[in-house]
Amino acid sequence: MRHAVARPLRLVPRAARAFNSHHARASSTLQHSKDKDASAHRPQAQHHHDRDRPRHTADVVPYLAKQPLHPLSLADLVKHGRPPLSAEALLASARFTLSLLPIRLAHRIQALRNLPYIVVSNPNISKIYNNYQHSLSTLLPWQGRTISNLDDEIRFTEVLAELVQTHTDTIPILARGFLECRKYISPTEVTRFLDEHLRARIGTRLVAEQHIALHFSSAAHSGLTTNHTPPPEHPSYIGVIDTALRPAATVDSCGGFVADICELNYGVRPRWIIDGEPDTTFAFVPMHLEYIITELLKNAFRATVENGMNREPVVITIAPEPPEVKPTPTPTPQPHQQPPTSCDTNPITPLDDNAPGVTIRIRDRGGGIGPDVLPNIWSYSFTTFSESDDVPGAGPWGGNTNTDDALNVISAANNGSSSIAGLGYGLPLSRAYAEYFGGGVAVQSLYGWGTDVYLRLKGVGVGE
């Protein structure tokens, strides 16, 4: 059984296969198009101060890395409208995607260059560095030109699919490299780098995957079907975003998955109940929520079982945030002027029917977190699982530690393991996903009793 995190990472290979089958004509002429683009559509200066801009990838990285990152929000990703998009809206989405990605890739390349030379020389980390260089080089020819027709959009989306596929295993490979370089870089530096890198990677993948999904669900390509786009009976989707996501359904789905793993490893199947307002909906990325909930339930279920409290259900409370009430000033009517109508002062958006955000509390009776463990739970280099345990005997919040374990697990994250233990990176990575759009994760422990984890998610917020 695959780990839940593998699900979103499989989007890209399917997208690439879809292009091979549905865009054979464009694919067969891709190399010719690249050659033609390189000569006929070399990036042109859009502003007078760009005239001296370097053209080669190695030279352009410092220039692009100095450009500010656009603060991505869910509103940015849904602003082109609800699918199927018109041809013009689809082209606008492609141009928006192109305006963001080169700068984001350059920031990652520069961050890798800033690591100690002996670390970057590691074959695994060097591979990731070269992947980013390659991806940037495939996007540079598109800068300075306008994606003005559907043929351009198809070729550009092919480039996006290749880009996302190239970076599918970035985190396991990076972790393997850091594990091999542990003598030359401190755990603190590893945590700082991975935290920044993961947050940046969330936005980069999301921007690319959003346009790929919009591409396949748009009117201009309505004859195409893929496995990764929502079927027509799910009109709440805009690309990879579900504008009416029901967290209770995600909890039940992920709870079943984690309970299966518990039963496999311990012979016990934990129970859970959902209270609060389970019918709440909000706008969010389903695969992000699935990952976060899966990781948090793994901790809660494992603690409950290993503390001998499996008769006590894990309680998940769903609390929607109240809608913001913004007072609307009533202007004084001028002579011969009608007062504004409600339609003028209260514009309706596609997201108005949902909660602006949701807080989810996961409460377990697993004994709480030891005071010696609590300060380390947000570190990527920390876990409580000892490699010597065939079946882990220490609770998830206390016991033996090994600073290399978490990196070991991350580096093997794509091997299909169904282990419920050793995921020392679950909390910090979940927090990265939650914080990206303005939410967060907080932990409150009653040592000797249990743990409350508060997951706050903003439906529309500012990311990084």
TrEMBL record:
Annotated region described as Disordered, given as residue ranges? 21-56, 321-354
* Keywords in alphabetical order: ATP-binding, Kinase, Mitochondrion, Nucleotide-binding, Phosphoprotein, Transferase
Q: What is its EC number?
A: 2.7.11.-
The record's subcellular locations are: Mitochondrion matrix
Specify the Histidine kinase domain's residue ranges. Answer: 286-461
The keyword Acyltransferase is annotated on this UniProt entry: no
Q: Which InterPro entries match?
A: AK/P_DHK_N_sf, BCDHK/PDK_N, BCKD/PDK, HATPase_C_sf, HATPase_dom, His_kinase_dom
List GO BP terms, alphabetically.
regulation of glucose metabolic process
SUPFAM superfamilies found in the cross-reference section: alpha-ketoacid dehydrogenase kinase, N-terminal domain, ATPase domain of HSP90 chaperone/DNA topoisomerase II/histidine kinase
One GO cellular component assignment for this chain's record is: mitochondrial matrix
**What is a single Pfam family found in this protein's UniProt entry?**
HATPase_c
MF terms per GO, please? ATP binding; pyruvate dehydrogenase (acetyl-transferring) kinase activity
Q: Where along the chain is composition biased (Pro residues)? A: 321-338
Coiled-coil stretches noted in the UniProt entry, renumbered to this chain: none
- Here the segments flagged for biased composition (Basic and acidic residues) are 47-56
Identify its protein family: Belongs to the PDK/BCKDK protein kinase family.
Q: Which PANTHER family does this one have?
A: [3-METHYL-2-OXOBUTANOATE DEHYDROGENASE [LIPOAMIDE]] KINASE, MITOCHONDRIAL, PYRUVATE DEHYDROGENASE KINASE
Its name, as the record gives it, is: Protein-serine/threonine kinase
Q: Which organism is it from?
A: Staphylotrichum tortipilum
**Organism phylogeny:** Eukaryota, Fungi, Dikarya, Ascomycota, Pezizomycotina
